[in-house]
Amino acid sequence: MSISSVNKSLIKDACYINGHWCQASSGQTISVYNPATGEELGQVPDMGQGEALAAIDAAQSALVSWREVTPKERARVLRRWFELILQHQEDLAHLMTLEQGKPLFETRGEVLYGASYIEWYAEEGKRAYGKLFAAPSNDKRALSIQQPIGVVAAITPWNFPNAMITRKVAPALAAGCTVVLKPSEETPYSALALMELAEQAGIPAGVINMITSSQAAEIGKVLTDDSRVRKLSFTGSTRVGKLLYSQSANTIKKLSLELGGNAPFIVFDDADLDAAVAGAVISKFRNAGQTCVCANRILVQDGIHDAFVARFKEAVEQLVVGNGLDATTTLGPVINQAAIDKIAGMVDQAQSEGATLVTGGQRHEAGKLFFAPTILTGVTQQMEIARQEIFGPVAPVIRFKDDAEAIAIANDTPYGLAAYFFTENHRRIWKVAEALEYGMIGINEGILSNEIAPFGGVKESGLGREGSSQGLEDYMETKYLCMGGIR
């Protein structure tokens, strides 16, 4: 299947500014490739600082009218966008597999997951309540209201090219904000297809503006320097997040940062081993290990270590590596050459430091960007592979003795996005969950993301929360009103 087999109305080779599909003024383009085959899928505009400023202009102009639209009417438009995404689920899933690589069963799931945020915020936007406070004297009344923060800049990654957009744009629009969106240059077609459906849904000109660019640093500087942009939402690496955080200081922007992770996956000796193995496989190898919340370190207690590794190896060797368009594939490619080179280097270094290869460990014959699902044992917390985000299909296993050691190893990282543990002991559940320094904890569960729950991390994994009612609040400002002269 090629990109030509996807619904033609969804294949856009132009960006969207102020209600118009347009090319880069420079005439420059970005080539987009299928990571499974190396085939060029097409080209999209490589926009620069001028187009970024034009997008901010459009968002600022549209803000005046969009924030005055009632929450009920905004909900109607968002609901229409949600319905159109569901109608085009297969096309969107195939498009995502073509440019990102993950298997079709995963991209179908991502389309539904991404759409769930639009559905949720279509309703949640109606519930931006104010408060009435007990006044200090009888002649006064004190209350607060919530208002949209203003123009929002959103920068999204390639690993979830659908859901990371909807998770930011839906609450922004529901709150009454307008958006300038820069999706990843690795996966622009999924983003532009969502933009096409947003236009079909009736979202007014200027409310969402989308620019594609390979000039990430230059575009980021425009978005952070402009005082009209009142909020920045970014999902990506901690390194880039820190840079954007610093650049936003001059204009004191509100920030949402979902950054790197180093998730521990802890298996205690009283765990249901079958459930723990299944949870580890789905957490570690979903999207070929290219998720911020995937298990990065597998911590297994002494008493069950060997039994767990044996079952884990058996399950991992059942994974089918190949092109995501093949119905039998369960593990696709990684995103690009730099990614696979990094993964291979980390595996080699771990073995040189004393880790033992259980299975995998090499590039896969399926193609240039495929890596065999890998398990390493004998890993220690001092090894590089246990301290850095792998972002690939490699599972390092660390042995531990007791609860205190597991918690100490798990928390020995500057990151704090997600953590997982498996145990049948309810007392242990509470003690461990409260001791882990992470924003999200999966307990006897390898997948934890959904639209109703607050998604985000602590420490160097970021700021703010996406999803839930908190995700809406992050796009609003609270205004206090003090009314006097009441007798």
UniProtKB/TrEMBL annotation:
EC number: 1.2.1.-
One Pfam family per UniProt: Aldedh
GO molecular function: oxidoreductase activity
Keywords associated with the record: Oxidoreductase
SUPFAM superfamilies found in the cross-reference section: ALDH-like
Residues annotated as catalytic: E258
InterPro entries per UniProt: Ald_DH/histidinol_DH, Ald_DH_C, Ald_DH_CS_CYS, Ald_DH_CS_GLU, Ald_DH_N, Aldehyde_DH_dom, Aldehyde_DH_Superfamily, Succ_semiAld_DH
Enzyme class, UniProt record, top EC level: oxidoreductase
Domain Aldehyde dehydrogenase: 21-480
Record-stated family: Belongs to the aldehyde dehydrogenase family.
Record's protein name: NAD-dependent succinate-semialdehyde dehydrogenase
Origin species: Oceanisphaera ostreae
Lineage: Bacteria, Pseudomonadati, Pseudomonadota, Gammaproteobacteria, Aeromonadales
